[in-house]
Amino acid sequence: MLICVEKVFAQDFEVDGLSYRVSEESWQEVKVIGGDLKEIIEIPEAVTYEGVTYMVTSIGEHAFSGREETKKYIIPHTVRSIDSFAFYDNYYLQEVEFNDGLQTIGEWAFGYNYALKEIRLPGTVRLIGEGAFCTNETNGATISCLAATPPTIEHNTFEGRTDSTLHVMVSDVKTYQDAEHWKEFSEIIGDKMYKNRCKTPSITCDNDIFTFSCKTENSV
């Protein structure tokens, strides 16, 4: 007799003040869907619940939108995607620490975060959605992008911020000056602190935890 068993992955749980949902694509991965209200929130690379360890690979839609308490988020390198409106309208948010591994940022994900002091996008980012970093208040945030190929963006991805200077790798200035929508920044400069691009990246996996390393000195 042949018995077909369908495994359902959908499951929500909470650990250390953060709420998670098991991925529909992989039972070994979870997305963050919310959490406690506090000044600094550090999202872990992995989380263990009922004896099972899951890798944290995404941040869900509206997970942290409309908050006034949190001033800083730390996002680990295991997070590949940030969904639409994930951090929308956080009036007092000052800092988001991104790490290599992040590939996509959804539409309006960080829209109307007026107090952001710095937006530093890692070299792994490939797509940034509509209105993702838009604002209608000038705050002079420092904006930098370390991707060799300019990520795909929309006309209003950085609406209200294109008067700021865009900092990129020294070797990538011309590429960004010619890139659709990126060229709308008032000034694009090659920042010497980003001059060494990693030439020998290494990725290892141990117990479903990915680690990125690089042997290039002073690289990103």
Mean pLDDT: 88
Largest sheet: 8 strands, mixed
Radius of gyration, taken over Cα atoms and rounded to an integer in Å: 18 Å
The SSE string, one letter per element, is EEEEEEEEEEEEEEHEEE
Q: What is the first-to-last residue Cα distance?
A: 56 Å
Query: Which structural class best describes the helix and strand composition?
Result: mainly beta
Report the strand count: 17
Shape verdict: globular
Percentage of helical residues?
Answer: under 10%
* Number of continuous helical runs: 1
Protein architecture, described:
The structure is a single chain. The chain is an all-beta fold and 220 residues long. The protein has one helix at 173-178; strands at residues 12-15, 18-22, 29-35, 40-42, 46-49, 52-59, 72-74, 81-82, 95-97, 104-105, 118-121, 127-128, 142-145, 165-168, 187-190, 201-206, 209-214. The chain contains one helix and 17 strands. The strands form four sheets. Strands 1, 2, 3, 5, 6, 8, 10 and 12 form an eight-stranded mixed sheet that branches. Strands 11-13-14-15 form a four-stranded parallel sheet. A three-stranded parallel sheet has the order 4-7-9, with no helix packed on it. The chain is globular and about 50 Å long. Residues 1-8 have low confidence and may be disordered.
Nutshell version of this structure?
This protein has about 220 residues and is mostly beta strands. It has 1 helix and 17 strands.
